[in-house]
Design a protein that fits this description.
single chain; alpha+beta; FAD/NAD(P)-binding domain; 2 domains; five-stranded antiparallel beta sheet; 5 helices; elongated
Length: 289
């Protein structure tokens, strides 16, 4: 659909490395598909959607802010497995639905907001994934999952982004250093509260959280990142206005998850799409004006 629009050009295989201001325009520079193939494109307005880390890297390079530390966030995740005793030992269905079949919301003491999760049938997952998370030896795990598969459910949960505290910093050589860490509020007590709330919710539905069946993941493993160039009412340099325009870089707009100052536990893809559409309208009006 985009290719049919006048003025649209798709340039695959390009890797953008820098934005440079020129009189009334921006120069976008980078490397082409072939080794040693460099390119440059000039435009009045730039929309950045390179993922929160890539977008922030380009913004910090353009502002020459080496050494500036940027806080950003993600939704701390955990994986879990539950068993439905009445279905164990039955026949494994030949056809399965691999996407999430049920979602859950947990309200947990000590959490800054609701915790959101999805539940899946393990029949749509590679067996290697299950074995890797099992406390049993590989051979025993294979036998167990073959027997338990009809009554087994797996899932993941995501916690609010206030429980993360990541950092990104541009180095003098143009690269970036990322430090992944959780906020101090995400301590052992809160983790136990989440596990208890999840177990109670599952028991009310006739399923039981398996022993060692709740495993928090390490910081940054969820890949739901945001807030590296957040939209704020009073943005600092390298942050964005409510219109998505980066302060200090007039005409450069951030339209991906980097612009969201925080994340709920629930998936935010549609929120990013809606915000990108809103900012695109702002850019369109400016260009026509």
């Amino acid at each position: 659909m985009l290719a049919r629009q006048p003025g649209f050009t798709h340039l695959p295989g390009r890797f953008v490395t820098e934005l440079t201001p020129t009189p009334n325009r921006w120069a976008v520079r980078g490397n082409g598909p072939s080794s040693g193939d460099h390119f440059e494109i000039s435009a009045r307005h730039i929309a950045l959607a390179c993922g929160p880390i890539g977008t922030a890297t380009l913004v910090l390079r353009a502002l020459r802010l080496a050494g500036t530390e940027v806080r950003f966030c993600s939704c701390p995740p955990a994986a879990f497995a539950v068993i439905q005793p009445g279905l164990v030992g039955g026949a494994i269905p030949e056809r399965v639905f691999a996407a999430a079949q049920l979602s859950i919301v947990l309200h947990v003491d000590g959490a800054p907001g609701p915790i959101f999760g999805n539940i899946f049938s393990p029949a749509g997952l590679p067996v290697s994934e299950l074995i890797a998370r099992s406390p049993l030896p590989a051979r025993s795990s294979m036998a167990f999952f073959r027997w338990a598969m009809p009554g087994l459910l797996v899932g993941n949960i995501f916690m609010p982004s206030e429980l993360s505290d990541h950092r990104l910093m541009l180095r003098a050589d143009g690269g970036v250093d990322v430090t992944w860490r959780y906020a101090s509020a995400l301590d052992d007590r809160l983790t136990r509260n989440v596990r208890r709330a999840l177990g109670s919710a599952m028991r009310s539905c006739g399923a039981w959280l398996m022993p060692a069946g709740f495993k928090p993941d390490s910081p940054g493993s969820d890949m739901h990142y945001a807030g590296t160039v957040p939209m704020l009412a009073d943005p600092a340099v390298h942050q964005a206005t409510h219109e998505g325009e980066v302060r200090g870089l007039p005409g450069v707009f951030v339209i991906d998850g980097a612009a969201l100052p925080s994340l709920p536990a629930k998936a935010h893809t549609l929120t990013i799409m809606a915000n990108a559409d809103r900012i695109a309208g702002i850019m369109d009006r400016r260009l026509k004006g």
